[in-house]
Amino acid sequence: MFVAERMTKHPVTMTSDATIGEVDRAMKKHKFHRMIIVDDGKLVGYLSDRDVMRVAPSPATSLSKFEIRELLDKLKVRDVMQKKVITVNEDATIEEAALIMYNNKVGGLPVISEVGKVVGIITATDILKTFVNVMGLPDGGKVRVTLEVENKVGVMAEITKIFSDSGINIDSLITCKQDNKKYEIVVRFDNFDDLGKVEKQLESRGYKIIHVVRIGEK
């Protein structure tokens, strides 16, 4: 799954000649927290709602709303914007985008094409939506089984064979390394009447079942 498939295309942008007031009003109108700044088709920076708060008068000020607006309309974006912009390429994977956000503690990334043009923006919310969709949560009628396994060759093949022999079509299978050097494997599939039989087969092969839940049972 790639960034280009999950990003918001044709994002709202403004130029560095815009005023802080203009950007602030645009962010509030579109209900987002950061504005991409583009000059002549080139990404030059971004402005967040925190940047606006940083230069805005204190809430304790005696200035009227009109005076505050007038003040912000005198400040130029170029004088306040963040010039070091962390980006992601449109052909990057969702995992790469998530890791960049995590490592840099940012909630969104401008998406750049091969020629350096801004073609979208991807946010932490987009990553979360992707995770929800991958897990098939909106569909409901699923079973989610979590197993604890050793890190050894053949584990995945044996587990999938047990499910296959039981006539179960696995929708998704995710592995997660634990602190004890073991792994958790999360298997998700359509509701299955004889789940107990599968559980016994897994346990007889030495696989520890640590959680079973039916999601959105219909």
Notes on the structure:
It contains eight helices and eleven strands. With 218 residues, it is an alpha+beta fold. It has a four-stranded mixed β-sheet with strand order 1-7-6-5. It has a four-stranded antiparallel β-sheet with strand order 9-10-8-11, with helices on one face. A hairpin with a 2-residue loop joins strand 3 (34-39) and strand 4. The relative contact order is 0.14. The mean pLDDT is 89.
List strands and helices in order, with pairings.
Layout: H1 3-6, E1 8-9, E2 13-14, H2 20-30, E3 34-39, E4 42-48, H3 49-55, H4 65-72, E5 88-89, H5 94-104, E6 108-112, E7 118-123, H6 124-134, E8 142-149, H7 155-165, E9 170-177, E10 183-190, H8 195-204, E11 208-215
Parallel strand pairs: 2-3, 5-6
Antiparallel strand pairs: 1-7, 3-4, 6-7, 8-10, 8-11, 9-10
Notable traits:
single chain, 218 residues, alpha+beta, 4-stranded mixed sheet
> What string gives the helices and strands in order?
HEEHEEHHEHEEHEHEEHE
Q: How far apart are the termini?
A: 29 Å
Oligomeric state of the chains present here: single chain
What's the total helix number? 8
Indicate the mean pLDDT. Answer: 89
In percent, how helical is the residue content? Answer: 25-40%
Gist of the model:
It contains eight helices and eleven strands.
